[in-house]
User: Fold this.
Amino acid sequence: MKVKSAMLTDWGSREQDYLELVQNVRAKLCQIACPSDLENATKIYSSVIIQGSGTFGIESCVGSAVPSNGKFLTIINGEYGQRMHKIAVLLGIKCVELVFDEMKIPDLVEIEKMLIDDTEITHVGFIHSETTTGIINPLDQICKLIKKHKKIIIVDAMSRCEILIDE
Assistant:
């Protein structure tokens, strides 16, 4: 009932109440991205709210985050990982894929080997909850590994989101 009541409010995109609501949501998203430094989270990160399907979100993220001189590694263990890779290919992004059995969690040793062997990789993308198979990939472990190699992480967390604590 709370949601239905809230939806009865008309919001204008240039009205102060709406602008404050959007800024609050954006700030909270930044704090989720940087829980160890909440005070500076909005100085370090920004978030952009877009409207569209999950696929649209991945396309906009991959297409805008990976520069023309970048190289994108997609970790794949299901249909949505394949879709992420296909989007990168269609956008003309230089990319490689690391494919695992769709009923298994990606092997961290193989991911690390790929990151060591291919020094051109600048960005790594993967799906957190591969809903086509029910596999929930270990977000924390994969992100820590990618971060260790100083690569930029793109995660499709459309179906599931956890807060990472920076260690």
About this structure: Residues 16-33 form the longest helix (18 residues). The chain has two domains: 2-44, 54-156. The helical segments are 2-7, 16-33, 41-44, 54-65, 79-90, 108-117, 139-148. The first strand starts at residue 72 and ends at 76.
